[in-house]
Amino acid sequence: MNILITGAGLVGCYLARDLIERGHNVVLYELAPYRDYIKWVAGDVQVVAGDVREMPDLVETMKGNQIEVVVHTVALMGQKLDDQPYRGMNINIGGTINVVEAARLTGVERLVYTSTFGVYHWNLPPTEPVTEEYVLAGNVLYSGSKIAAERIVRAYGNRYGISTAVTRFANVYGAGHYAGGAGGGLGASAIHELVDIARKGGDVSVDPRRLTDLTEYVYIKDAVRGVALAAEQKGTNQTFNLGTGVLATPEDVAEAFKKAFPSVDVRVMDVPGTTQVTHRDQPLDLTHSRNELGYDPQFVDLADGIADFSEELAVVPVQAS
Length: 321
Prior knowledge:
Elements (H helix, E strand, L loop, with lengths): L1 E5 L3 H12 L3 E6 L4 H8 L3 E4 L5 H10 L4 E4 L5 H6 L1 H22 L3 E7 L24 H20 L2 E7 L1 E3 L14 H12 L4 E3 L10 E3 H13 L5 E5 L7 H11 L5 E3 L18 H7 L8 H12 L8
Parallel strand pairs: 1-2, 1-4, 2-3, 4-5, 5-6, 6-10, 7-9, 8-11
Helix pairs in contact: 1-2, 1-8, 3-5, 5-6, 7-11, 9-11
């Protein structure tokens, strides 16, 4: 299939690699392409420099490349969104409107939107693994914009007969450059920095202030495999959790580093009461994703993901930011 991916960050580039390996033709659409990173991860994939806020450019790209499936990953998040809320909402919500309208106008067959487990109402809190039907919250800018975008995608699908899917990631980590702001308080950038230190033989000090006290991590290769399966699937208007079904504390992160790097000294910094206030009391329920997509995460053990992450940095020499 001819597949357009909006966004050439961590998710977009690793997804492009996965889809190319699965035999698809891929085009990346990115406002400011980091071409070295794209090449390191996805090879010689076609890249179009474009803004999701410019619908005519999206239409031209979809039409000119005979796009059959669109995967929309572009979003501003973290501190970048908080500092520029109007611009960020124009990208996160307005950009989604442009993408789905361009898809409608050009006859795209399927649209996949990448969202987050941050849309769930964790403050209730849940008492069992969280399914895709769990109540949503949207009480911060990022999750609010994600919920709005999810609804837009679903509404377009219902009204115009476009096959759609929404994927909700757990906390994704991997060799990314975090241009959209993803390296903030979610821990992805912190894990990246620690992997880079450990692979060079340095001592690892896990700072709980940069991690969530209890959360679920998913390695980038598992996350994008789930999205690839959703892109290939023919069902309509479904939502899929993509995680591991396993929760981790900062202490668990430290234990994973010890296992992945047995010769490296690893410790958790003694800064009690300073972890991120948002925590997840239950893991994601992956039953629907397993049954409908055949989703089967390979890096359930955080140590396995960290070890593979280290190997990736040998060929994807991007610095954490």
